[in-house]
Specification:
By secondary structure, the chain is α/β, with parallel strands linked by helices. Helices cover 36% and strands 21% of the residues. It is elongated.
């Protein structure tokens, strides 16, 4: 192999940037009511269940759904087990408009997500040539690729062995891994959080998302009062505003106070109720950024 394909022994060496073509975006039917309304996430991996790996993807997906007006109805964590993957994926596809899976698409023996989902929807498996080509390009300047045995190369190719009737969507110019979509609604993602997050965000043009006017608005009020002291007021408030589709929640911070959350599609009405809540619970409205900062500091 020529020296141009093997990086020098130099810690400052930078791999060439990738610039793959992104899949063309189809035009979704504009028919009212055809957009995504409900969603579910299937997190796959023994490492999640045994505590080795912290699942960050379900939380990111929950935020994605909220921001885009989708009701996330279910999150399940299951083992790398074919029977469990088949049962859960079939059930979720029947019940929800948009389903994501995370994990189990690597090159090792326990990465069985593609094969299990192929069985789930009565499909065979086939290598995807474009994915193999992009994989080869991405590894061209990595020294370890040239040193792999035939057995190791076959294992790496498993990451491009997809259900044969799947839709393959390339969503990022710098990532060779595609989003693989089955039944028009189940999207298969890597378990690595940075890849999951970027690929989910880049998938938006390929999804029939709810229109802006149907997306919820959340306002948060923080009070130093204990949750038991504000519970009667919040119970009455929820009964009063439930017919308007507004949801009230309370989330205590240990020995600090309570966040009261108001969620609804009518931004003006939510702000109006926020003034009432501020007065009744002796609190103040806080920004999403402030609440997130406290969460990141472990205050929630």
């Amino acid at each position: 192999m020529s020296c141009s394909t093997i990086p020098p022994d130099n810690p400052a060496f930078q791999l060439p940037s990738l610039n793959f073509a992104i899949s063309p975006v189809p035009k979704h039917p504009p028919n009212k009511g055809r957009h995504i309304k409900t969603a579910a996430a299937l997190i796959i991996g023994d490492e999640i269940l045994n505590g080795k790996t912290l699942d960050r993807n379900s939380n990111y997906f929950a935020r994605f759904c909220f921001e885009h007006g989708i009701q996330l109805k279910r999150v399940e964590v299951i083992a790398d087990d074919e029977v469990e993957i088949i049962e859960a994926s079939r059930r979720m596809v029947q019940m929800y408009d948009f389903v994501v899976t995370s994990g189990g698409i690597g090159p090792t023996h326990d990465d069985i997500t593609y094969a299990s989902l192929a069985k789930s929807f009565d499909q065979g498996l086939a290598y995807h040539n474009e994915t193999l080509a992009r994989m080869e390009v991405s590894g061209r300047h990595r020294a370890w690729v040239s040193k792999q045995t035939e057995e190791q190369r076959i294992a790496r190719k498993r990451m491009a062995l997809f259900p044969d009737a799947a839709e393959v969507i390339f969503v990022a110019s710098d990532i060779w891994v595609p989003v693989v979509r089955l039944q028009g609604k189940l999207c298969i993602f890597p378990g690595i959080p940075s890849l999951f997050q970027k690929m989910l965000d880049n998938l938006k043009p390929f999804l029939p998302l709810p229109p802006e006017e149907e997306r919820p608005f959340r306002l948060q009020v923080f009070t130093g009062l204990p949750e038991s002291s504000i519970a009667p007021f919040l119970t009455d408030l929820q009964k009063r505003v439930q017919p308007e589709g507004i949801r009230i929640g309370s989330y205590p911070v240990l020995q600090k106070g309570v966040y009261v959350s108001l969620i609804g599609a009518n931004r003006g009405r939510v702000h109006q109720l926020g003034v009432e809540v501020e007065k009744e619970v002796e609190g103040r409205v806080v920004t999403e950024a402030e609440a997130e900062a406290k969460r990141q500091l472990g205050c929630q």
